[in-house]
C-alpha cells in the first residue's frame, strides 16, 4: 500500500511538471440575458476576435449562469471567481470616480466616440490614479447618449417645466445626479421591470439610450422621445481580467489579446451601441412615437442647471490626484473630434 501511495504521489508530481495545454479557456460571467444585444453584438464577436488573434490558443466563453448580481461584477474578477467580467462603473457608487467624465451632460452623443474618448482619456490622465489596479483593465465602452422616453399619460417633455417633478426610472451612476439636478424624481427598478412600472404608472418615463425601446419591448408604453442636442448622459462600462489569470498568459498572448481590446474594443462596442440606437429610433418612428429635439430655450436652462455637475466631477478627480479640468477638456475634445469623423 505504501508503495502504491508513493507511486501515485510521484505520478501526480510528474503530471504537474508537464507543460500546460496549448489551449487556454477563459470564463466570463454572464449576467445579461443570453440573447441580449450586448452579448450577441459585442462580447461574442470580441471572444471570436481573441481566439483569432491568439491563433486559437485562447478561447473565451460565458458562464452557464450568472455568478453574481450586476454590482458584484468587478469583485468577481478581483477575487478570481471568473477570469473576465464586465459591468457598469456606476453600479458601485464611490468606487470609480474618474470614468464618470464620460457620463456628464454635453460630452457627445455617439457611443463610439464616447467609448474611444474614455479609453484615451484613461490612458492619458487616469491610469496612474490606480482605480483599476486590482485587475487588468481590458477596455471601456459607453452607451450612446440617453433620451427622455415618456408615456402617453405624462406627455411629451418639451421644456424644463415639463421635466420637473417627473418620475423617471434611472439606472446607476451619473444619471441619478443629473435627473435630480434637473428636478426629476428617481425611480429605482431593475431593467427587466421597466415595462411594468411604466404600464402601472409607477414611473412616467425612463432615461435610457434608444436601444432600450426595442431591447425591453416598450412599444406599448412609450409615446414620446425627447433628444438632447450635444448629449444628455451615457453609462460607462468596464471590461476587466483577474490579475493571476492574466499573469498566467505569455507576454505574446497578452499582446495578442490587447490588440483586439483597449481602443479596438471601445470602437467596436461603441459602434454596436450606435447601430442598436439607430435601429430603435427607426422602429419608434414606425410605431408612431413622437420624436422631439429639445429647443434652445430648453437647452439654455439645461446647460445652466447641470453646470455644477462638471465642477463636482473636476473636484472629485482632484481628490484622486488628477487634473480634472485638463482631463475633462481632453475628453470633450476627443469626443467631438471622433464624432465629427463619423
Proportion of β residues? 15-25%
Q: Work out the helicity level.
A: 40-55%
Mean pLDDT: 92
Strand arrangement in the largest pleated sheet: 7-6-8-5-9-11
The main sheet comes to:
6 strands, mixed
Encode the helix/strand succession as letters. HEHEHEHEEHEHEHEHEEHHHEHH
Give structural notes.
- The chain has 342 residues and is α/β, with parallel strands linked by helices.
- The protein is 46% helix and 15% strand.
- The chain has 13 helices and eleven strands.
- A six-stranded mixed beta sheet has the order 7-6-8-5-9-11. A three-stranded antiparallel beta sheet has the order 3-10-4.
- Helix 2 runs antiparallel to helix 11, helix 4 runs antiparallel to helix 11 and helix 4 runs antiparallel to helix 13 (324-341).
- The longest helix has 25 residues, at 263-287.
- The chain is globular and about 60 Å long.
- 44% of the residues are buried.
- The model is unreliable at 1-21 (pLDDT under 50).
Summarize the structure.
The protein has 342 residues and is α/β, with parallel strands linked by helices.
Which SSEs are present, and which pair or pack?
Layout: H1 2-17, E1 24-28, H2 37-53, E2 58-62, H3 73-78, E3 84-88, H4 111-126, E4 135-142, E5 147-150, H5 160-163, E6 167-169, H6 174-181, E7 185-187, H7 194-199, E8 205-208, H8 211-215, E9 224-227, E10 236-242, H9 243-247, H10 251-259, H11 263-287, E11 290-293, H12 296-319, H13 324-341
Notable features of this structure?
342 residues; alpha/beta; 6-stranded mixed β-sheet; 3-stranded antiparallel β-sheet; 13 helices
Amino acid at each position: 500500500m505504501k508503495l502504491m501511495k508513493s507511486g501515485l504521489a510521484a505520478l501526480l508530481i510528474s503530471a504537474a511538471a508537464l507543460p500546460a495545454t496549448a489551449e487556454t479557456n477563459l470564463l466570463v460571467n454572464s449576467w445579461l440575458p443570453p440573447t441580449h444585444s450586448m452579448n450577441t453584438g459585442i462580447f461574442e464577436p470580441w471572444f471570436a476576435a481573441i481566439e483569432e488573434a491568439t491563433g486559437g490558443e485562447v478561447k473565451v466563453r460565458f458562464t452557464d449562469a450568472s455568478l453574481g448580481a450586476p454590482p458584484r461584477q468587478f469583485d468577481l474578477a478581483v477575487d478570481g471567481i471568473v477570469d473576465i467580467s464586465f459591468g457598469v462603473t456606476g453600479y458601485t457608487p464611490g468606487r470609480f470616480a474618474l470614468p464618470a467624465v464620460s457620463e456628464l451632460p454635453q460630452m457627445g452623443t455617439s457611443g463610439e466616440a464616447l467609448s474611444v474618448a474614455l479609453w484615451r482619456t484613461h490612458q492619458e490622465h487616469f491610469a496612474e490614479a490606480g482605480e483599476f489596479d486590482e485587475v487588468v483593465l481590458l477596455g471601456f465602452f459607453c452607451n450612446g447618449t440617453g433620451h427622455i422616453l415618456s408615456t402617453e399619460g405624462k406627455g411629451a417633455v418639451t421644456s424644463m417645466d415639463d421635466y420637473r417633478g417627473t418620475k423617471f426610472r434611472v439606472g446607476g451612476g451619473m444619471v441619478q445626479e443629473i435627473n435630480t439636478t434637473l428636478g426629476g424624481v428617481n425611480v429605482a427598478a431593475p431593467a427587466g421591470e421597466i415595462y411594468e412600472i411604466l404600464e402601472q404608472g409607477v414611473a412616467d418615463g425612463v432615461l435610457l439610450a434608444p436601444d432600450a425601446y426595442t431591447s425591453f419591448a416598450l412599444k406599448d408604453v412609450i409615446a414620446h422621445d425627447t433628444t438632447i442636442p450635444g448629449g444628455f448622459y451615457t453609462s460607462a462600462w468596464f471590461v476587466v481580467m483577474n490579475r493571476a489569470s492574466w499573469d498566467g498568459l505569455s507576454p505574446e498572448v497578452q499582446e495578442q489579446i490587447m490588440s483586439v481590446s483597449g481602443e479596438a474594443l471601445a470602437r467596436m462596442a461603441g459602434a454596436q451601441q450606435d447601430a442598436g440606437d439607430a435601429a430603435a429610433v427607426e422602429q419608434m418612428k414606425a410605431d408612431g412615437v413622437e420624436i422631439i429635439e429639445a429647443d434652445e430655450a430648453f437647452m439654455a436652462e439645461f446647460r445652466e442647471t447641470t453646470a455644477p455637475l462638471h465642477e463636482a466631477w473636476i473636484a472629485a478627480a482632484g481628490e484622486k490626484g488628477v487634473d480634472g479640468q485638463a482631463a475633462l477638456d481632453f475628453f470633450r475634445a476627443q469626443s467631438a473630434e471622433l464624432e465629427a469623423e463619423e
